[in-house]
Amino acid sequence: MPVECYKRSMHTKTTSLSRSLLLLIAAGLFLASPSQGEVSSSSSGRLDLRGVDPRNSGTAPDDPGLFGRIKFDGNASSWKFHSWLEGGWDGTVKRPARDHSLFKNYDTVYQSNTPYFEFKELFVAYSGSALDLKAGIQRFSWGRLDEYPANDLLNPWDYTQYLRKPLEDRKIGVPSLSANLTRDRWTVETVLVPSLVPYRLPMPDERWAGSSFATSVHQALPNAQIVPQEPDLPARTLANSNGGLRITYAGDIEWGMNLYHGFDPRPVFRTTALLITPTVIDPGYVPDFHRITVVGIDAAAIVNDWSLRMEIAYASNRYLNIRKELWGYPAAPGPGLTALNPSIEEKHDTLDYGIGADYRLFEDGTLLMQVQQTMTLGNTGLLYEKKRETIVWANLKVFWMNQKVETNASIAYNPEHRDAMAKLNAWYVLSDSWKAGVTGVAFNGPEQSIFGRYSRNDQVEAELIYSW
Questions:
Q1: Staple 202 to which of 154, 160, 317, 335, CB 3.0 to 4.6 Å?
Q2: How many independent structural domains does the chain possess?
C-alpha cells in the first residue's frame, strides 16, 4: 500500500481569513496615521534566547531556540487597534519535509513550523460609554483557577510543549467577535467564534509528545518517520460555530456565571489503522471533535492577606477516550496494516471543580495553592483509568535583593496515580531591559498518568531575555 495514501499536506491555504487579517492590519495602520487627529500609539517587544539540557539519555535533543514578540497598540478616539505577533526558531520541534508554512494556521493540528510566526492577538475594538466591541483574533480569560481553569473554553491550547509553557502561552488566539455591556457592577460578555480552531499537538517523535505506542515502535525503527493523519475538520458554517455568554458581578465577592456551547477544546481521538513500514509509522489515531454544552460559576474574594477563588463547570455530552490498553494495539507489532478497536470513545457528562488561595507570607513572598478535580459521571466500569482525577498544585514566589532576584518553586501532584511534577526557576534582573534565568523541571509517575507520561522530559533550561 503506497505510503503517500497516509500523508496529508500541511501547506497554508489562502482563505478569506487571510484577507480579513490584512484588513485588520490596514485598519491598524489607518488608526495610527497622523490624519486621524487625536491619535496615540505604543509598542513593546521581547527577545528570548533559550537553551535546554535534557536530563534523560535517549530522549530527542533540543536545539537552542530564539523567540520574539512585538506588541503594538494604536488609539484614535473610541477606536483601538491591537496586535501581538510572535515568532522565532523553536529548537524543540522536528520539522517534517512536508511542512513549509511560515505562519501558524487555524485548520491544522500538527504544526512543526520552525522558523514560524503567529498572531496571538490581532483585533480592532470600539469602546462606548457602556458597550465595548471587538473583532479579530482574540484570547479570553474566563474562570478563576490558575493553570487548568475549568470554564476557560473559548481558546484551544497549544500542547506542543504542554506543562513547560504557562497558561498564557498555551492559549491559541481565535478569530472571533465579542461584545461587553457594563451597567453599574454588572457586565455581560458575549463571544462568537464563527469556525472551529483546533488545538495543536506535537509530532509523536518530539520530546513533548510524551510516551505512546507510536514512540515505542519508533525506538525499534529509528529510521522511520511517524506520520499522524490530520483530521477532517467540521464544515466552516455558522451551525458549527462556538459561542459563550458570561455574566459577572463586581462586589465584595466577585462572581460570574458562564455558558459555553461549541466544540470541546480537550483532545480526544478516534482510531483508524496502525501502519508500520521500514520508513513510515502511522500511529492509527486521528483527533476527533464533538460539541458540548458547559454551564459554570466562579467566584473570588479578598480576606485580609488571603485571596480566595473557586469555580465549577458541568459539561454535558463530552466524549472521552477509554484506556489505551483497550485500543487494540498488538502486543508484538510488526510490519503491515493492523485494524484497531473502533469503539474507543464514550459519551459522558463531567463535573470540574476546584478552589484556590493566595497568601501573602511577607512583603516579597506569596504562596499560591490550588486543588481541583474532574469527575466522570455515569457508569464508567473499567474503561477509564480513574473515575476522578485530582491535581493539587502549590507555588511559592519570592523576591530577593530589592526584587533583583525572583524565585519560583512549584509542585503538582495527582494522588490517583501518585504522579508529580516539580519546577524550580530563578531570575536575575541585570537591568531594566535584560534578565537571565535558569529553570529545572522534573516528572515522575506511571507511563499513562498526567505527569508520568513526561517522565523522560526532565530538563534544565537557561534563558536570556531582552525587553523594551
A1: 160
A2: 1
Its domain, for residue 362, covers: 3-467
Q: Digits of tens for pLDDT over the chain (468 positions)? A: 434 443 333 333 434 555 555 556 665 555 555 555 578 999 999 999 999 998 887 677 788 999 999 999 999 989 999 999 999 998 887 665 555 678 898 999 998 888 899 999 999 999 999 999 999 999 999 999 988 899 999 999 999 888 888 888 999 999 999 999 999 999 999 999 999 999 999 888 788 888 777 777 766 677 788 888 999 999 988 899 999 999 999 999 999 999 999 999 999 999 999 998 888 889 999 999 999 999 999 999 999 999 999 999 999 999 999 988 899 998 888 889 999 999 999 999 999 999 999 999 999 999 999 999 999 998 887 777 788 999 999 999 999 999 999 999 999 999 999 999 999 999 999 999 999 999 999 999 998 888 998 998 999 999 999 999
Cell (9 digits) for 85 = 505577533
**Interatomic CA distance for residues 233 and 195, integer angstroms:** 10
Q: How many CA atoms lie within 13 A of 133 on its CB side?
A: 5
> Are the C-beta atoms of residues 383 and 321 closer than 8 Å to each other?
no
Cα–Cα distance for residue pair 89/12, rounded to 1 Å? 18
Cβ-based burial of 253 (10 A; exposed 0-12, middle 13-18, buried ≥19): exposed
